[in-house]
Amino acid sequence: MKLRVWSSFLLFLVLSSYVFGQSPRQIVDSLLNSAQQENTDETLAAIYGELGWTYAAINLDSAIYYGQLAVELSEKTGDETLLAQSYSDLGSGYLQKGQLQEAGEVYLKSLEIREANRDSLGMAKVYNALGFILQRKYESDSAITYFLKALPIFEKEGALLNAATILNNIGVIYQNMSNYPKAIEFYERAAVMREAQKDFRNLIGSYANLGTAYKYLGDFELAEEYFQKAIDLAIREDDPRNLAVSYRMYAFFLQEKGDMSRLEEVAQKGLEAAKAVNALYEEATMEYALGVVENTKKNYKKAKDYLESAAEKFVSQGAEDDVFGPYLELITSFAALGDADSSRYYVNLYQSTLRSKEEKAAKELTAELETKYQTALKDSQISEQQLQIRTKNFQLYGSLLMALVLGLVGYLLYKQQKLKNRQLEQEVELKEALAQIETQNKLQEQRLLIARDLHDNIGAQLTFIISSIENLKYFEPIKETLTPRYESIANFTKQTIRELRDTIWAMNSGAVTLEDLVGRVKNFIQQGKQSTDVKLDFVQEEGLDLSKKISSANSIQILRILQEAVQNAVKYADASQIQVIFSFNENQLQFQVTDNGKGFDLEKVKAGNGLGNMQKRADEIEASLSVKSETGRGTEISLLLSL
Q1: Which residue of 25, 266, 304, 542 has the smallest Cβ count within 10 Å?
Q2: What is the pLDDT of residues 6-31, one digit of tens each?
Q3: pTM over 0.70
Q4: Cβ contacts of 494 within 8 Å, gap of 6 or more
Q5: Cα 401 from chain centroid?
């Protein structure tokens, strides 16, 4: 069976904060007793958060339940620090249950609050969790980016337990890249830190990870030694969650080794531990292992029951890579039982699942090739247009030369018709001149459009990058601030690339839906949040029909107007909050950009490229643009377009 990317003990290394002197059950009993006392909402929310965190080692459903209670109470108190921690606690429960979408959503909410409060250590913990979620989604490049953002913060703050978590997570990525010596190096560094800090619960994970890495290197003796150390330590620490995962990883090892008698004993213990904490993935893998054992023992009916249950759990969790094993074993089970129809059913199911996976990969590849094709097609069209212009110029010069020759011959042979020939020649020249002027006007219009785009988007972004580089020399000590400054520059450079992609997106589409446009605006707002201290919000009226379509030309102009408005507010308004509000009424699309900045006097201010370009874009799509501002009262820019 193929080992999943997250088969290592990464799951138990996210933001660990256990009290080492007590078992999870003892902590839960103490917290439940405290919750029964008379408490303020703030204190009770904190207790619920700790219950959610601690229950993750005992029962994941309870962990999520108490995490949700903590969030609800924290929202009532208005304490943002408490709310951010409650989101993180709830995210941990979702994450360990395998609900990655829900986990990502609440961790991003926590990150937004921590960034606003400049809570660097809290931000680092969320970076670590988001990195793990991306790792579970097989997005290793993005995952390691988050891990490397968190590591220097933990090291600077002296948070050695969290730093050990990052080292372990990086080791998992190296393991998935089959670089096992490098993975062992990081696992051992993490284990040394945990032993020194007496972080025994996370040390269980280090032992299990080392066992897996040595298994892949073929050193079975050392691998089994580490697996047994992980199991013994989990039993000693009374940690059923870590115990379930340790048994699961040990079972993988025994199955690959072919030790079926030992596999049955370990899988039974692992299944019991997994059910105790409702760990569905561990349950599924243990049932699969038991199904393999029963098939080997020719107990096909019993094997069938285990394998069908395992397959159902894998499918419910979206574990496509893992479901193939039970399907193959079920083919064997039903064939041995003489049930040809069921055996054939799982053959077809195996093939359709494999085909679905391959089709998904093919679609992704096709989309990439389509983008390259469209780019090449656009280049070809530009070349064809240039060729047509050269051909027209050649025809023009040839026609002029021919007219001159005919005029000379006509003068010599038909002197009386000289005036008529001259008039005809002038008419030809006038038509060609008008055609040339029209072509030049179109080219000039395109140049103006490109110039505005360069000013509104790429120019603004590159100006910020240059300014950021200049400002680096004013920071002391430079070593402590250089890295985040360069990260800021990198983010804005990426934004520049996104702006170019926005233009290509609009050029390649005949029409786009409002949902596509809103998605682009939200993406711009989300990126803006990461590059400024100003609070950026996107507000969308509920119940909107986002399936309506608008032309691609209109969509890119709207996007550029909003980008210009937001960037002007960030740069000039001294605002602490900016909102982009989207509504749609009576076939009219409306965007509003408001800020609580210093405002300006509309009668005194001189319109620069920013306001002028926004008005020009609005005129081109026949939209109404209004600007309301008073000194000290903020600014509101409204764009109204009839569909």
Answers
A1: 542
A2: 333 443 333 333 334 467 778 888 88
A3: no
A4: 527
A5: 63
